[in-house]
Amino acid sequence: MTGPEVIPHWIDGKRWDGASSHTSPVFDPATGEVTAEVRLASTGDVDAAVASARSAFTAWRTTSLARRSAVLFAFRELLDRHRDELARSIVAQHGKVYADALGEVGRGLEVVEFACGIPHLLKGSHSEQVSTDVDVFSLRQPVGVCVGVTPFNFPAMVPLWMCPVAIACGNAFVLKPSERDPAASMLLAELWAEAGLPDGVFSVVHGDRDAVDALITHPGVDAVSFVGSTPVARHVYETAARSGIRVQALGGAKNHMVVLPDADLDQAADAAVGAGYGSAGERCMAVSVVVAVDPIGDELVARLRARTERLRVGPGLEPGVDMGPLVTAAHRDRVAGYVEAGLAEGAELVVDGRGLRVPGHEGGFWLGPCLFDRVRPEMSIYRDEIFGPVLAVVRVSSAEDALGLVAENPYGNGVAVFTRDGGAARRFTREVEAGMVGVNVAIPVPMAYYSFGGWNDSMFGDTHVHGPEGVHFYTRGKVVTARWPEAATPAGPDLGFPTHT
Length: 501
Fold this sequence. Notes:
501 residues, alpha/beta, Aldehyde Dehydrogenase, Chain A, domain 1, Aldehyde Dehydrogenase, Chain A, domain 2, 2 domains, seven-stranded mixed β-sheet, six-stranded mixed β-sheet, 16 helices, 22% strand
C-alpha cells in the first residue's frame, strides 16, 4: 500500500521534489484524517526557487505590456473556468463551506481582473519644456524578485491579492503558502503555466518558519508581502527590513462592529452572525466584538442568540451547512481554551458550542459557534485575536465610548458601524482608528481597485495590498530629465547649481 500523496514545490515551471525529505501532514478538517503530506523546503530549495525567479525576471521585465496583459487575461479565463475545482480543494484542506470557498476565489479573481489593466496602471507622466529644451518624464519599473508569505485562512484569495499585480508589473514571484492547505497554490501554479507565463516567473515553495526566514533574508529577494498574525508580521517586517528588502506585513485583528441605538437590530444581528461565524471565524476581517450602545444590549443579544442557535455546522460540501470545522485539532483546542478562559474571567456564555458532535464525522475538528455577553476589555477573549467562532458582546453607554474602545485596542484592521443616522456615521468614519471602515457593512473588504490594509498593530509598512498601492509596492519610481539642444557653439562648463530658465 502507498501512503498519502506528497505535495511537492513548484520551481522552474514544474513540480519539484527538492532536496529535503521533511514533510508536514495535511488534514481533512471534517474527518481529522491525513489526506496528504507536503514537502518542507530546505535552504537549498529556497535558493533554487530564488535563482529560478531571478533568471526569469531578467527576460520578463522586458516583456511588452501587451504580452503581459495577454498572459493575465488568459490566467483570468482559466481561473474562472477552474473556480469549482479550486473551491473544492479549499474545502478539502481548510474546511470552510463550499459557498464561502467559491466566494474566496471570486474575490481573488477580481484582483486578477484589476491587474489585466496594467498598461493603464503603469502609465507615467511627462512634462515638456520644463526649462529651455529640457523635458522631464517619470516611469515605474519592477523591483525584481517578490515573495508572498500567505496564511491558511484564504489559500487562494490572499496569494491572488499579491501575485497577479506583482507579475503584471514585470516581477518574478515566489509564493510560500501555508503548509496546512497547500493544494490551492499548486493549482494556481498550473494555471499560470497554462496561461503562458514563462518558467520561473511564478514559483511555490512550501515550508515552515525556516523557509520563511530563508526567504525574507535572501540576497536575491527584493520585496516581501506577508499576511498573518501580528507577532509574525512584526518579525517579518523587522527581519526583511534589516536585510534591505522592501516589505509590507499585514498582521492580526480584533474587528469591532458598533451598533448604535437607532440601528435596524435585525439587520445588525444578521450581519454580526454572518461576519462572526463565517469560515468558523477564521478570517482576518471577521467581526469578533459587537459593541452594543445602550440601551439596545438586551434586544441585540436576544437576536444574536436566536440566529446563532439556528446555525448548522458540518462538512463544507454538505448542502445547507452554514459553518465548517476549524483547520486543525490544535487550533480547535486553542480556541476552546479561550472559551474556558472567558467563563473563568466572568463573561456570560450565552451560546456554548463546545462538545459539538457531527454524526459520521466524529474525528473532525469541530467547535460550534460560541456567543459571550457582558465581556470587559481586560478579558483575554476581548484582548486576543482568537481566530475562531467566538463572538463577544461588549456594552457601552454612548457612541463616544464606542469610539474610545476601538481607539484603545492595539489593532486597527477593520471596523463597522450600524446606524440610520448619516451624521453619526460620518463622524464615526472620520474619527475611528482603523484602516477599513464599514457603514452598515460588517466586512468592509475593499474592491480590487482600492487597497486592503489596516492601521496600528494590524499593519507594518506603509503600503497596503493590491489596488493602486499594490502597483506602487511592486514597482520603483524613476524620473528622467532630458535635454535635446539644437547644435550650437559650446558655451563651456558651468559649475553653478542647475536652475530652470
